Amino acid sequence: SHFKFAKNRIAELDKDNFVCNYTMIEGDVLDDKLEFTAYEIKFEEGSNGGCICKMASEYHSIGNLEVKEDEIKAGKDSAMGIYKVVEAYLLENPRVYA
């Protein structure tokens, strides 16, 4: 990534329901377009014995600026890349979560 830093604040960590809410409050990733971005990550049981990860994002822009669809897609693709790396690691190292 070409970004140098991001600062997040955890708002909720619900271990029983596998939910995490956090807000990106600082960082060059926000650029001059966003005040902050809020996220909710939730893991649900999948039908095949695995899990389903659901992620919602709220973009809070500065002024009346609209976040473009291609910028949202780029953020989603980046997040999915991180999840794929974590998934691959956990599949190769099941002892870390067993």
TrEMBL record:
The keyword Thylakoid does not apply. It comes from the Eukaryota. GO terms for cellular component: cytoplasm; nucleus. GO terms for molecular function: abscisic acid binding; protein phosphatase inhibitor activity; signaling receptor activity. One of its GO terms (biological process) is abscisic acid-activated signaling pathway. Keywords: Pathogenesis-related protein, Plant defense. InterPro entries: Bet_v_I/MLP, Bet_v_I_allergen, Plant_def-hormone_signal, START-like_dom_sf. The keyword Glycosyltransferase does not apply. CDD domains: Bet_v1-like. Pfam families: Bet_v_1 (PF00407). Residues 3-93 form the Bet v I/Major latex protein domain. Belongs to the BetVI family. This is Major allergen Pru ar 1-like.
